[in-house]
Specification:
The chain is of the alpha+beta class. It is built from 4 helices and 5 strands; from the N terminus they run βααβββαβα. Helix 1 crosses helix 2.
Length: 153
């Protein structure tokens, strides 16, 4: 396996921010959900990400192999509870899963959180994604809230 290089996104890297926003916007499609991604959605996510980086509330880091992004994590300190961070998005390319890349990104984000006095990290995971559930449990996460949904016709 090629060496993984981690890189923190910076406010000045609008192209990188936009690439991560596009990946984030397209994630429901990877679970087979019909979710068309509009250009304005990508731009809105990019604006949100850029503003958070500028304000120091966001951790967004990529993992690259051979010059291509193979994983990224976007977490944000909550504005109304500064000791809490929420993982907004975590993605790894299918061919790079189960190699520890997402685990490394989570550990790097936890280091960022500790430096900011964050005491609690929230994350959501689709229960069908058993690999991420197991990874979270290995890293010390526990189920704190079960969200449920009902689709109205």
């Amino acid at each position: 396996m090629e060496q993984v290089v981690f890189d923190r996104l910076r406010e000045a890297d609008r192209d990188g921010i936009r690439r991560m926003a596009a990946i984030h916007a397209g994630l429901p499609a990877q679970w087979g959900e019909a979710c068309p991604v509009a250009e304005e959605d990508i731009e809105a996510f990019a604006d949100q990400l850029e503003a958070g980086i500028r304000g120091g509330r966001v951790f967004c880091e990529t993992a690259e192999c051979g010059g291509s992004v193979v994983s990224f994590l976007w977490a944000e300190a909550l504005e109304d509870a500064l000791d809490v961070a929420n993982i907004i998005s975590l993605w790894t390319a299918p061919e790079h899963r189960r190699r520890g890349v997402a685990t490394d990104l989570k550990k790097r984000m936890e280091g960022w959180a500790r430096l900011r006095g964050i005491k609690r990290i929230l994350t959501g995971v689709d229960p069908r994604n058993t690999a991420v559930v197991k990874m979270n449990e290995k890293l010390g996460y526990r189920t704190a809230l079960l969200k449920m949904e009902k689709l109205l016709s």
